[in-house]
Amino acid sequence: MIVHRARWVLPIVSSPIRDGWVAVERGRIVAVGGPGQEAPVAPGAPFAPMAPRAPSAPEAILPALVNAHTHLELSWMRGRIPPADSMPEWAERLVALRRTVDADPFEPIVDAIREARAFGTALVGDIGNTAAAYEPLTDSELSAVVFRELLGFSAADPADVVARALEEIEALTPIEWLRPAIAPHAPYSVSPALLQSIARAAAQQQPLSIHLGESRAEIQFLCDATGPWRDLLERLGVWNPSWRPPGCGPVEYLDGLGIVNERLLAVHGVQLTDDELSRLAAAGATVVTCPRSNRWTGAGEPPVERFYRSGVRVAVGTDSLAGVEDLNVFAELAVMRRLAPGVPARRLLRGATIDGAEALGFGPDLGSIERGKRGELVAVRVPDDVQDVEEYLVGGIGAGAIRWLESE
Length: 408
Hints:
Elements: E1 2-9, E2 17-25, E3 28-33, E4 59-63, E5 65-70, H1 87-98, H2 106-118, E6 121-128, H3 134-138, E7 143-150, H4 158-171, E8 178-184, H5 192-201, E9 208-212, H6 216-224, H7 228-235, H8 250-256, E10 264-268, H9 274-283, E11 286-289, H10 291-296, H11 304-310, E12 313-316, H12 329-339, H13 345-351, H14 354-359, E13 377-381, H15 389-393, E14 402-404
Helix pairs in contact: 4-5
């Protein structure tokens, strides 16, 4: 058994413990406590009497973070697509750059995985149009839901598109901590028939991710089939002239296709109304916010306070290195704090830990410091005079202040 002590321990599901400790054995948490208690000598044993111990380190121990939305395969694009004034403009630049290579390079993916770990991340919801990130993930300590993202606004046979994607998933080497799944890209890039085919095929999987309510152009497109997304589909040669706009918002549109439920991760949500957020909350869905990327891609700043006010579960993502400076979830929390000064720091931290883990189906193993969960713990250096450790942690933490703790 290893017992880690620190000035603060943040179970996430309860208040921070001053001068706390966490006991781990064989990779699992076996106990957590504070002053007046000592770690049991064996799992399930009574607490031992207090014994002399070293002073608590000026650190905070917390569960490793969850990056609920990123695109590891695009890591080679870091710094190569400048910020844009609109999402369609940025996306067109990405498509043009991607067409300059035959395949997404391997080494930048490996480097991005290392970077995510350096920033204290244990779990990602990774989106890929290929399986390029899967092999690097198998050789890492990063857990992931690996979404095979499907596009096809004019696909002739949606069922065949889904069947081929499922065959690719079946061919992947099974790894305990990696969970392959299929997912649609967005309402403006996936036909209704393909959306429904994906939803039927994914009915037994956890979870289902889609970019939703990201840009004003998306709302315009669903309303009357005009605007920048329509123009881009035509320039790319994939517009379907038989498509008819639903004439409603993105949440109502997906709900009509049977996709809005507790398994849904609605990524971005920058343009969602209060009614749409309430609808997602009632369904038990999750909004994944990626505020730094939203600014970079021209989507705008997410209404983080409205997210929380609606009652919807909120998770945190960085999006890809094509549209963000790094894979630091703590940096996303700092932007969320600026955008939502009225939201308690504890709720923001939940979005980067337990809420993200539960949304991705890893709640029993990750996201909080509780007995039986995996001992994926990080220690963050904090100043001696910090009184509100939760507020300090949502102020932005760099990799140099983070270290991983041994679990076995």
